Amino acid sequence: MDTTTYTTYSIRADRLSTLHKKMEQIRRRAAKLGVEAPVVEVGASYDVFFTRANGAKRRVPADQVAELRASMRPMFAVRYVDVEVAGAPVKLAGWTFVAALEHLAVDGEAANLLRLSPHYRGPALPERFRTDSPENCDHCHKHIRRLQTYVVHSEGEAGEWKQVGSGCLQDFLDGADPRAAVARLEWDLDLQSFFGAEEGEGSGAGVLQAASIEGYLAQVAACVRVDGYTSRRKARDLEMNATADDVLDLTISPPPQPTADWKRWAESCAVTDADLDLAAKALEYARTDSLAEQAARAADDFLYNLWVVAKQDAITPKLAGLAAYLVPFYQREVEREVLRRAERESLGASKHVGSEGERLLVQVQILSVRSVGQGSAWGTALLHKALTDAGDVVVWFDRADRDALDVGSAHWLKGTVKAHKEYNGVKETTISRVSLITAEQAELERTKAARKVARAAKKGAALQMGAA
Q1: Main-chain phi, psi angles of 178, to 5 degrees
Q2: Cβ–Cβ < 8 Å for 413, 362
Q3: Phi/psi zone of residue 94: left (φ > 0), alpha (ψ -120 to 50 degrees), beta?
Q4: CB-based burial label for 42 (10 Å; 0-12, 13-18, 19+)
Q5: N or C: which end of the chain has fewer CB within 10 A?
Q6: What is the C-alpha to C-alpha distance for residues 65 and 71, in angstroms, rounded to an integer?
C-alpha cells in the first residue's frame, strides 16, 4: 500500500536556494544510510504586492492592488512559489515513527515537548507521553538519562505504543542501521520547521542564549501593543518579521550596528508598566494546572506544549515561537470569557444607538481589543468592541501606537455615530472621534445636555404661546 503523503507549501522564491541546499544535505545523508529521501517538487510561481507604511513592509490584499495602482502609490512585488513535498512515514518492521519527545521539566517533574511527524496519520498520541521520563524506554527498560526519545506505534490490531531510546531502534529494524531511521524522522521535522508548518518552530535553534521568561513576555506584550501579533507562519507569507523574532532581536541578539530606523522602532517597543502587567497575567494564566487539564480533556498537544513552555524559567530561541503566543493566547481567552458573559446577559438584545453624525455620551465595558490590518497598505489599528450600560454594542478603531484598553474595564466615552451595522446577528454601532472622559466630566456633560434640552423645550413652549 502506498503511504506517501503530499503537502504543498508557499515560500518566497529567494528561499529556494536555501531549500535546495538543505535537500542536498538530506540526499547525501540518505545515500550514505541507504534510505529514500523526501522528494521536493517546485510548482507554480506568482507575485505578491507590498507597499511601505511607517518604514515597514505591508502586504497589499489582491482586491486592493488595482486601486493602489490607480492612485499611483508605490508598490513592489515579491515572487512566491508553491512547493510540494512527498514523503512517507518511517517504517520500523511493523512499527511507525510518530513523534520525537524533547525532554524538559516542570516543577522538577518530567514534561515533554511533543514534535509529531508530519507524515503520521494515525490515532492521537496517548497522554502519557507528555510526562514520560527521559530515563524511560519501553523496550530495554534501562534507566538512562536521554535528551530525546521517540514514540513508535505498531500496525497490528493491538495498536501498541512504545517510547524508545535511539539505541534500541535497531531491535525494531531487523538489524538495519538505527541511524537511518532516526535521520529520517529528524529531517522530516527539520523540513516541517523550515516551511513553518508548526507554530513555535523556526530559526535560531542553534543559538544558546536565553532570556528570562518574565522579561521575554514583557517585551512580547510591548511588541504586540505596537505592531500586533504575527506568527512565524504568517510572517513568511506577509514578508514581515514574526513577533517572536522581533523580541529575540530586542532581548537576546540586537544587531551589532543598529540603524536609526531600528533604534526608533526599539524605542517605540520600550516596555511599559501596562506591558509588565499584561505579561504577568498571561504567565500566571498559562501556568495554571487548569490549562494542562484543558489540554488533557481536549487531547490538544499544542495547548500542552504552551503549558510546558510557560513553566520554564528561561526562553531559548527554539522555544521563542511558542512562548510569544502566550500573550495573544491569554488576551483571546480573556476576550472569550467576557464575550461569553455578555452573551449570557443577552448580547443579542443590542440595538443601534443614535443617528449618523450624532455625538454620543455613553458608559461602556470593554468586550475585546484586537489588532487588525497587519500586512495591509494602511497599517495596523486597534479595533475596540464595547457594551454600553444599556446593553448595546459599540465599536471603534484607534491607532496601534495608543495604549489598548483592558478587556472588562469600564469607561465613559464620547464619540460620533459613523454607521449602523450587524455582525454575527448582533447589531453594532460604529463610532469615530472617540475620547475617554472621567466620571466627573461625564456628569458635567450630562448636566449641560439636560440644560440644553430644557432651554430648547422652554423656547419651544414660548414660540407656541406666541403663535397662540
Answers
A1: -65, -20
A2: yes
A3: left
A4: middle
A5: N
A6: 10
The full length of the chain comes to 468
pLDDT in tens, the chain (468 residues): 456 667 777 777 777 887 888 788 778 877 777 767 778 888 877 777 777 654 455 677 777 777 776 776 666 667 778 888 776 655 566 777 777 887 887 777 777 878 777 667 677 888 888 888 777 777 777 776 677 788 888 866 567 888 887 767 666 655 555 566 666 666 666 676 666 533 333 333 333 366 788 888 999 999 988 888 888 777 766 667 788 888 888 887 777 777 788 888 888 888 998 899 998 999 988 888 777 777 777 778 888 888 888 888 878 777 888 899 999 998 888 777 766 666 656 567 889 999 999 999 999 998 888 877 665 556 678 889 999 988 899 999 887 667 778 888 899 999 999 999 988 778 899 999 999 989 889 888 888 888 887 787 777 776 776 665
- Residues with Cβ within 8 Å of residue 349, at least 6 apart in sequence: 391
Burial (Cβ within 10 Å: 0-12, 13-18, ≥19) of residue 302: middle
Q: Rounded to whole angstroms, how far apart are CA atoms 164 and 150?
A: 5
Separation between Cα atoms, residue 148 and residue 157, nearest integer Å: 28
Whether the CB-CB separation of 248 and 320 falls below 8 Å is answered with yes
Cell numbers that stand for 327 in this block = 500573550
465, three cell numbers? 404661546
Looking at domain 347-437, which CATH architecture does it have?
A: Beta Barrel (2.40)
Q: At what angle do helices 16-33 and 178-194 cross, to 10 degrees?
A: 170
Residue for cell digits 455625538? 359
Beta bridge partners of 85: 7, 40
Pairwise CA distance, residues 371 & 397, whole Å: 10
